[in-house]
Write a structure and sequence with these properties.
246 residues; mainly beta; six-stranded antiparallel beta sheet; four-stranded antiparallel beta sheet
């Protein structure tokens, strides 16, 4: 009888036959096996050691990376990417088991971050799977609330109906609105500040930073205005997300 010697095993595999320990021998080809004369009623019990591990998206690079327990990939329910709160060199020390929920954990030091099997998430339920250093502190556009006929391009929200708004809640003294300049873009804002997303081209990266805020929670709302640049073909506003600053 042979058992696959999986790469996710966290240590040696232990086994018993009818309660007596046996040794599973490797054939050097990723299989562990036992050869014996079997009898009716024999019971083979195998314990597969599981542990936390990181799974890089590309090759041996540590960024971006997913986190798994044994063969089960975990996804994170969190307001922003939790990567800066996770010690990848000591993964097991980061997590506390969630009682009554198999393979589900709370992040030590921030119980609001829940890690559970990727397969346990329902359709349209937001999560972080591959954790990316470049996305730390970023609120993706799909996490932002909208009112009005906003549409998704796959990378941002966009809309051209005056009065429609998009907003996000964050903690901190500074935030950057991520967006682009377009030749059919309009203006948004008020009462704090008006921004103009018109530009003589398409997909021109442009960010707007709002700083000097008091400590604590804040909500930023981007409201489409009826006025626009005379050169613009329309009044579209786009929002690609928010970048938070410590």
């Amino acid at each position: 009888m042979r058992l696959r010697n999986a790469g996710w095993f966290a240590g040696p595999v232990s086994a018993t036959v009818n309660g007596a320990p046996i040794t599973l021998k490797s054939d050097g080809k990723h299989w562990l096996g036992v050869r014996r004369k079997w009898a009716n009623g024999d019971r083979l019990t195998v314990k597969l050691p599981m542990g936390f591990r990181s799974i890089p998206l590309v090759g041996t690079s540590s960024n971006p990376t997913a986190i798994a327990v044994g063969p089960v990939v975990l996804a994170f329910r969190s307001g922003d990417s939790p990567l800066n709160r996770i010690d990848l060199d000591h993964l097991a020390a980061n997590f506390i088991p969630s009682p009554g929920e198999p393979l589900t954990y709370r992040l030590k030091g921030d119980s609001n971050v829940l890690a559970r099997p990727f397969y346990a998430y329902k359709a349209d339920e937001p999560y972080y799977l591959y954790l990316d250093k470049t996305a730390v502190g970023r609120i993706p556009y799909r996490r932002l609330k909208t009112q009005g006929p906003w549409k998704s391009s796959g990378t941002l929200w966009y809309c051209n109906v005056p009065g429609s708004w998009c907003e996000g809640t964050f903690q901190g003294r500074s935030v950057t609105l991520l967006g682009f300049l377009f030749d059919d873009a309009g203006r948004a804002g008020r009462p704090v500040q008006t921004i103009d997303q018109y530009g003589p081209g398409r997909d021109i990266t442009r960010d707007w930073t709002f700083s000097g805020l008091s400590p604590g929670p804040h909500t930023i709302r981007i409201t489409i205005l009826p006025d626009k640049s005379e050169k613009s073909k329309d009044r579209y506003i786009n929002v690609a997300g928010l970048q938070l600053h410590s």
